[in-house]
Amino acid sequence: MTTPTNDRLSPAQARGRFRGGLRTPTSGWVPGAAQANVLALPRGMAFDMLLFAQRNPKACPVLGVLEAGQLDSELLAGGDIRTDVPAYRVYRDGALVAEPDDVVEHWREDLVTFLLGCSFTFETPLRRAGIPLRHQQLGVNVPMFRTTRRCAPAGTLSGPLVVSMRPIPADRVADAVRISSRFPGVHGAPVHVGDPAALGIGDLAAPDFGDAVDVPDGWLPVFWACGVTPQAAVMESRPELAISHAPGHMLITDLPEAKLQVP
Amino acid sequence: MTTPTNDRLSPAQARGRFRGGLRTPTSGWVPGAAQANVLALPRGMAFDMLLFAQRNPKACPVLGVLEAGQLDSELLAGGDIRTDVPAYRVYRDGALVAEPDDVVEHWREDLVTFLLGCSFTFETPLRRAGIPLRHQQLGVNVPMFRTTRRCAPAGTLSGPLVVSMRPIPADRVADAVRISSRFPGVHGAPVHVGDPAALGIGDLAAPDFGDAVDVPDGWLPVFWACGVTPQAAVMESRPELAISHAPGHMLITDLPEAKLQVP
């Protein structure tokens, strides 16, 4: 999925490609630019969503909020949140009703849009440290799973924690933890290392979102909190309308990854 | 202000003293327990306040939110947010109208309460490292100042950044930065070191909140973002009702300081 040219694009150029209709997972795109999950909800639910994020900061680290009527911000300067993501999902009453390339016709003036950090952001420093990323090696989307861990509820919103999984060679797990923990704004340290059953995941070959990847001998499955978590809450809590990115098809922001690094 | 006994109290015991009517600044109280700023606003303003906090995380780090009708939480187990703070402020249409010991008679069912980290929390690790705290030496409240720096606005809320000031010996400034930066949940690293004029502060002897302290020869004034910032936004943005702690008179929570330390 990484083409020879897309790591030389600016964030705005990448958004332009997606606005033009390109539909692809964004892992590996525009190294150094923070990537974001997108969730737009009617204004009446905005407090519940922001409170859900505050109570579940590993799954929902807020990078920015577009208020009702606002279509861009310093995170997507000159962009349009309705068109600049490679693929969207539209939920009505909690049911997925469309997966379009843009959401201009679904948009409403009262939608408040939450931009939540995505773990694709720390894949760049992981790769720089020589840690292999299996889904990139295979050219597929990262696998994501619903877990049996419940999020802290907030108002009308409740649901399970969703995680992304990356197999990591056993001798690099410590490095993967150390490096990702420096990026709390894009999910930070893993929530679990090893046995998927402890998270209630029965079969790593059957992810709930994205594509399956194998776990090579001598590697461990490592699980990070995932920004699809609020989509799972939407499916459970059934707001009249919700619009999100399609899993793995992220907003590429103007925020440099380096600005998210602590300490 | 620190008595021989109050550093042996549990957070719940300290809250009990304040519920019983004791009125005192809380710097130095219950070492190891996180202290919190309090701001309660009508539910209709709750999203604006949470968004204001998200956009101004150094001034408004959210430790917890009590939803409408909720009077305690795991941050003040068995407590009552209307009585357990040493002193409160009541604002109507942005004007300070009362500074009572409890706010039972002012309370409304639709108030949402925000608990924001307070820098008194990292005073304990500063002191443990041998860094002198002038306001504790003098037995007074910490001095706080409005600055000419503006916060990022959110909906109806806007206002200036408010800072607390601690003079620090020049050879310990680096340590004070290093240690406080490990506690982003209670304001983290300073926003400014040195010349107060750069923040628009004319006279260190005339704080806007709290008490003046001198800056001894060879010490520098060091400024941290302060949780009184949303009170300044309330004064400017004039919601019909707002209830807060009185500056320096904080909620002592059950959250251990150690849980706030990163990395």
Automatic annotation (TrEMBL), chains A, B:
Broadest EC class assigned to this enzyme: lyase
Coiled coil ranges: none
Alphabetical keyword list: Lyase
Highest rank taxon of the organism: Bacteria
The keyword RNA-binding belongs to this UniProt entry's keyword annotation: no
Record's keyword annotation contains Iron: no
EC numbers, comma separated: 4.2.1.-
Cited PANTHER family: D-GLUTAMATE CYCLASE, MITOCHONDRIAL
Family affiliation: Belongs to the D-glutamate cyclase family.
Protein name as catalogued: Putative hydro-lyase GCM10020260_22960
Species this chain originates from: Nesterenkonia halobia
